[in-house]
């Protein structure tokens, strides 16, 4: 059995639950929404990631003996709440953007409907997963755009917490990377893994030549030799002397990459190794990758910048109550009033409007059902963005596991084609398309 | 049994192992060192964190059936290597800085000694843990310095991957925070947890007054009421009307905090609630905390900035082979030659030199044993920085669990007192003390 995820939770969710069970509001049906108020870091688009992971973690959101004992011993909640938690199981519904989908400010990435009691406790877990994974996926998509057809490998595990590293490998793959160095990501999510040798391999041996010979003996001549431990020119010369002109590749992990790549390509060609690939891996980000577009580089390995979201390590999404039932059972749209953090109350339906296949707006219809569909129908080509993820407590398994990852990656690569050209520039900017709200509620006044 | 941590590893470690088992170099004894070449982000000092976590994860670094099956099916390694991994157990030794200790460029934070085979495979796990946790602890220490005697709570779980969030709570606590919102950090590491209510609590109720009454009924009047869901002035007035002047605290999560805090203090005092505390929690970092020093704020809650290392989400440490035995059994210091990433070969002993209790340098003696001790003895007051963490495969349990955390926190707060005053400024700068290398190897020439 998987370990419980129930305590990956901020304490205030359980203290609210405790108080709500006392005053009866715990059983009011509520709609919570997970969304980003803006695209952090001046991004032109965001990429949703983490949804499939969250659904699996939701299955393990149960309070077992260990969790209940801690909550009792620490007096986090009272006895009645402990009893409630012992039987806790999310029985509500979640709709949301497909994993890999693009998003913009206000996009309702997840809509969680259930009682206050069952939905309020999911806030931290849902945000932790989506904020981290989407930040990585958004950075990764920019790198993937910059790299064009050249393959990208994620190699940043060492620069992220050991579990986040696995999630980061997954998010980068969904956003267009082709492989990861992280073995657990390979096992858990079926992502192709790669990697051959570090500098320590060369240093372990008495000579660079010994190291290269041993690597080729073990991995064959299609392997990639790391040639910059001592002198790069000598390293390349030794590599081809040892492996022959059929050597698969060389890796360069230091120096001024455009200069060094050009020199190494020239040297390889002069030695007859015209098919030997050049992989570069030194502190790359989307800007460095773009700057190498004209250089004779065959593949990129990206570490720190992708796993840390290239300057934006969290997507900054929030989880807000947007509608609830009142004492009489009617629905009320709600929103915090503070001007600097205002959010929009009410349940929402989201569509991407397209013109000739190119996205023109994020259309968010406040209210759902027929009114929303009518609004969307007014647009010639509006793609609905939300799908059912959990129905009455039943998780749709299609989004989980390696299959979910492949499907998210395919979806991402497909919908990225809808972006207008200006979305692909790397500089800071406003979102590439505007978010347009349409209020279709019969009684339009949200509190 | 805990899940295996063995695949939290970059593939190249296993391909190197595979090749080394073939050519016999796998059994050469090696010294690997984990260190940072610089203090990322213009920090004046770093704080070591993660050591205790790493030691526990090391206990679970075993290749079981699942791990071996994946490596076999994916042809990551050959049959001989699978057999080696099946019996894998780290039998070497690790010395290192105590958790909570300060560090500077080149500080040998971990020294791992064992065969190449057993030490090379720990690279990714060790770096993942120390890079993440130390980045958080370093940011947290700066916030703790800025906050002075006012309590700090870590509330950033939602802005970090769900497992990194637990580690971040732990690292922040070691570096001077007093509590966390993360319940799992409370259970696993014994860290005090805190939190009362979110905006959704107020929005759930028909009126703000209903919400405050219900919270007080459940949590007592010593609770903290969140007063900025609608209008702060009305919120404060309602809070005191409902709770009386004995209300424990109010929390403000929006607005221009110096202005708002002053207004709220004035209003509370005018209402007679002179003991009611003010907690602020809106997008704080060390600079915002410092700017609030003159404001009537009683406590800070910090989220995003602490869990993301306040602009520096990874400490940028590396794991390098620094010495190995040659074919004849003699020791050779080794280092990569590339000029932009040069590291210093050889085993090292580290001391902090002090003058009147204030740190003056990070003294790193290349070589160990008597020569190192002699060098250190030349300084009137040199504190040795390394302790034994693993001896012949046996982990020192004193560094693990809640006890390890408390001891690391106490150590941190003690050694922070040694910092010169200039180390406490928040602006970007060079390290507060210089790193001084002394080469005491009998044959001084490192390769």
The pair of chains with the biggest contact is:
A-B, 107 and 105 residues
Proportion of helical residues of chain A: 25-40%
Would you give the CATH topology of the largest domain in chain A?
nicotinate phosphoribosyltransferase
Low-pLDDT parts of chain A are none
CATH architectural type of the largest domain in chain A: Alpha-Beta Barrel
* DSSP helical segment count of chain A: 16
Quaternary structure type: homodimer
Percent of sequence in beta strands of chain A: 15-25%
Beta strands of chain A, count = 19
CATH class of the largest domain in chain A: Alpha Beta
> Which structural class fits the helix and strand makeup of chain A?
alpha/beta
The CATH homologous superfamily of the largest domain in chain A is termed nicotinate phosphoribosyltransferase
Description:
2 copies of one chain form a homodimer. With 447 residues, chain A is an alpha/beta fold. The first copy, chain A, has 2 domains: 11-136 and 312-439, Alpha-Beta Barrel (nicotinate phosphoribosyltransferase); 142-309, Aldolase class I (TIM Barrel), CATH 3.20.20. Helix content of chain A is 37%, strand content 20%. The first copy, chain A, has helices at residues 11-23, 51-59, 65-73, 79-86, 116-120, 123-147, 162-174, 183-189, 199-204, 208-219, 232-243, 257-270, 286-291, 304-307, 370-377, 401-416, and strands at residues 29-36, 46-47, 93-97, 102-103, 110-115, 152-154, 179-180, 224-226, 249-252, 277-280, 299-302, 317-325, 331-333, 348-355, 358-366, 382-384, 386-391, 394-395, 435-439. In chain A, strands 13-12-1-5-3-17-18 form a 7-stranded antiparallel beta sheet. In chain A, strand 8 (224-226), helix 11 (232-243) and strand 9 (249-252) form a beta-alpha-beta unit. In chain A, helix 11 (232-243) runs parallel beside helix 12 (257-270). Chain A is globular. Chain A starts with 10 loop residues before the first helix and ends in an 8-residue tail after the last strand. The model of chain A has no long low-confidence stretch (mean pLDDT 94). Chains A and B meet through helix 1, helix 3, helix 6, helix 7 and helix 8 of A and helix 1, helix 3, helix 6, helix 7 and helix 8 of B.
